[in-house]
Amino acid sequence: MRPLRARRPGEGRPPAGPRVLIPLLVLSAAVAQGFGRFGYALLLPAVNADLVHSYAVAGLLGTLNLTAYLAGTLVVSLTAERLAPATSVRAGLLCSTAGVAVLALAPSVPVLVAGMVLAGFGGALIWVPAPGIAGAAVPASRRGLAIGITGSGVGVGVVASSALTALVHAVAGPSEWRAVWGIEAVLAALVALAALRWLRPPPTPVAGRVRISALRAVPGWVGSMLSYGGYGLAIAVYMTFLVTAYQHDAGFAAGHASAVFALVGVCIVAGGVLVGRWSDSVGRRAAMTWTYVGMTGAVLLVPVGAEPWAVLSAVVFGLALSGAPAVLAAHLADSLDPRRFAAAFGAVTLVFGLAQLVGPQLGGWIAERTGSFTVAFLVAAGAALAAALASATLPRRGAARAVPAAPAAD
């Protein structure tokens, strides 16, 4: 009888296929974006009243979370040659789980800062490489759909976080916030354990060096980067001031304005799937350009301040919010292997993130100067239109240097 030998983690386990990988990536995206990041906006009033006692400091917490997200994005881009995409996702899930757990237990503002930083940094480690893994797991003809499904996890996270917050507040009152993050920490831990066990894309040989400059190998890379920056500015203004604009400028009741915002979240779930699949049929340039044109129209409907235009704006904007990055990610994945995708997607995400930092401050400053949010939304519409024009510079369908649908690196 041969002596027993301890098996190393992952040894003897077959690689996972897309039917396992993509659902795991959807759940991972939900943790990355829906729990620590977008979930904070839902709990901000309760957290501020109970622990922070300053909306300025509460806003700074959100800024620190985004700053940590950008730092994580830079780390993924710079370490893509050494850090396998799936390893980055697993590490990000552990980091995000720890961050949300710290938030749930935080006794003071400095501990809240630590939790927000951990959650933001971990979110980037998850989200930046995830679309590349999904795109490499399927044939090129289904790449947009696969990446779109993965991106729908953002909407799943937003909807789940909203529903959980509403449930906890219904049971424990609107001042309760620790239980929400506590439950989310448990859910994030379960996703992390599942990823440690089953997120195993087959290894892919990588020839040559992997650098952040990998983006320059993508046809139309300048237009891709500029369009994502315009997109970032547009959604920063829209998502930050939508509810306030409808209440302040249009006279909507709080429940009405919140329902419109919730509709955006529901449509985020479908946008990546629908627009990503559409891009597989009509090409990346056409899909991205027209998606940004639709986003421009949706933003312009907000100052109208009446129904049914508010609902139409929410539907179109929600579809575009998740659809546009799905098409951009598919465009990058058409030309890059998963490791180079992580480096390149990280590079364009940095531009997006900088626009996200500027957007809320710019929109708020304009609103204070003008006394309404109309001009701020006109600026956001201009940013979305600029994104459409930048997308129109991408090569026509078939001009990209296609990469075989090789499995993602583990």
Automatic annotation (TrEMBL):
Residues 22-399 form the Major facilitator superfamily (MFS) profile domain. Keywords: Membrane, Transmembrane, Transmembrane helix. It is found in: Cell membrane. The keyword Membrane applies. InterPro entries: MFS_4, MFS_dom, MFS_trans_sf, Sugar_transporter_CS. The chain crosses the membrane at residues 20-43, 55-76, 88-106, 112-138, 145-167, 179-199, 220-241, 253-275, 287-304, 310-329, 341-359, 371-392. One of its GO terms (cellular component) is plasma membrane. The keyword Nuclease does not apply. PANTHER family: PTHR23537, SUGAR TRANSPORTER. This is Predicted arabinose efflux permease, MFS family.
